[in-house]
Design goal:
about 220 residues, single chain, about 50% helix, seven-stranded mixed β-sheet, de novo design (two linked rop proteins), about 20% strand, alpha/beta
């Protein structure tokens, strides 16, 4: 069975779910508005520039999980996905996913955005297999720490290789899709690498290496 592996933000979505979740928390009054908004923007710009410190960002983005907890945030998250994420599904995303499903491929989303935010987004696409950055949970409560390896940059292929081993799918052909320079290590492990509406750095690498270019927007 072939694998079809998709980045989420700016690939299947026309936006960044992590950044937008932070903005939504500000709008709902659950965080210190101006200060949180400024830090959220700075981390987003660092991500887009390829300079993000993932540990520092997770420490920041996990703070509301620790403060408010799963039970309080889950209903808010459901509204967030309905109101802010569903309208941002890339126009070509569903046809691409349906094409892979029609060929019998197994679909996987791999994202640096944390699992709390992305689980219902993966469900929105009907994709059961999700590899995300995992917030640590102890005794039913978020600790504010990362569980295991962050699913970011070199962590993405590391986590994906482990998932493939655990699923007994070594040697299966794999196509990977992403928009970001941060995912070059992920795309390098694919049999078929596809740059989707890529940033300038990834577009240059894709042209140099002969990777496919695709627009879903």
């Amino acid at each position: 069975m072939a694998l079809a592996v998709f980045d989420l933000d700016h690939t299947l979505l026309r936006g960044d779910s992590d950044y937008l979740w932070g903005e939504y928390l500000v709008e709902q009054g659950l965080v210190d508005g101006p200060a949180y908004k400024a830090r959220n923007q700075a981390f987003y710009e660092a991500y887009m520039a390829g300079t993000l410190d993932i540990a520092a960002f997770c420490a920041f983005s996990f703070e509301p999980l620790v403060q408010w907890g799963h039970a309080h945030l889950a209903p808010l998250r459901a509204r967030f996905v309905d109101e802010r994420i569903a309208p941002l599904v890339a126009p070509g995303a569903q046809a691409l996913l349906d094409g892979h499903r029609g060929r019998g491929d197994r679909l996987v989303i791999t994202t640096a955005t944390n699992r709390f935010v992305t689980e219902p987004i993966a469900a929105l696409f009907g994709i059961e297999d999700l590899i995300a950055t995992d917030p640590e949970v102890r005794d039913g409560r978020f600790t504010g720490r990362i569980a295991g390896t962050p699913n970011f940059r070199e962590g993405k292929p590391e986590r994906l290789r482990k998932w493939i081993r655990d699923q007994g799918m070594e040697g299966e052909p794999m196509t990977c899709y992403s928009d970001s320079r941060n995912d070059i290590p992920l795309l390098e492990m694919a049999d078929t690498a596809v740059a989707v509406d890529p940033d300038d750095a990834l577009a240059a690498v894709a042209r140099e290496r002969g990777w496919a270019l695709l627009s879903l927007s």
